[in-house]
Amino acid sequence: MKRFSMLALVLVLILGFSSVMFACGPANPNPCLPQQEKFTVVAWNPLQGVIEGLGGEVAKTLPCGDETEIEAIAPFSVRSNGFLRIELELNPFTSLTFTQSGMPKIMTTAKLLQGTAEHISVSSNNSKVSGSHDMVEHAGFLPSGRGVRNYKLVVNGKLGNIEDQAYGDYKAVVTVTLAAPEN
Predict the structure, then answer these.
(1) In angstroms, rounded to a whole number, what is the distance separating the alpha carbons of residues 84 and 44?
(2) Which of 16, 33, 91, 138 lies most in the core, judged by the most C-beta atoms within 10 Å?
(3) Is the pLDDT of residue 71 over 60?
(4) Which H or E run contains 179?
């Protein structure tokens, strides 16, 4: 009886394993499948930058006397994903009170500072002037140019003698532009 039970147990195990193997199927019933193709997406992230914290208007009063001056300081940041060119365009202090041509303007200087480094300095007392600075790699920034850089825009207006400029309101405009560097 023991032999018969042992034989029956072996047959049950053989039948059980074979039914499991047939249920799973053969290793690869169709050698042509699966078939795969790859779809690749290539993305271009353009060179870009954002100026933060610059804008608005500051009112100043020139002190009385000869050769007096005013100064306005505007801190701002540039966030970029690469090295950029920063351009300054200075439109010097021009009279808003007397608008006829030939009216003298006030000597105006605009400077772009990063820490103690002066990157751009432009001056004029009669017409628009501009200057530019290309960001360069240095310690503290990623080699790709990515990062946040802090700058100061300093605008000075300097009178000559009292009689050299007409009284009234004057306005200077400095435009800061981010552009791709020239290679």
Answers:
(1) 17
(2) 91
(3) yes
(4) strand 170-179
The C-alpha atoms of residue 8 and residue 67 are separated, in whole angstroms, by 118
| pLDDT digit string, tens, across residues 1-33 | 666 667 666 666 676 655 555 555 556 677 788
The pLDDT value given to residue 86? 94
For β-strands 69-81 and 49-52, DSSP reports them as antiparallel
Beta strands in 60-128 (DSSP E): 69-81, 85-95, 107-114, 117-124
For residues 52 and 136, the answer to whether their CB atoms sit within 8 Å is no
Paired tokens of 171: 């306005």
| Joined tokens for residue 158 | 């300097």
Question: Angle at Cα 52 formed by Cα 174 and Cα 86, nearest 5°?
Answer: 50
Q: How far is it, in rounded angstroms, from Cα 143 to Cα 7?
A: 77
pTM for this entry: 0.74
Place of tokens 């309101």: 169
User: Which residues are registered as beta bridge partners of 66?
Assistant: none
Q: How far is CA 25 from the centre of its chain?
A: 59
Give start and end residues of each alpha helix (H) in the chain: 2-24
Q: What percent of the chain has pLDDT over 70?
A: 80
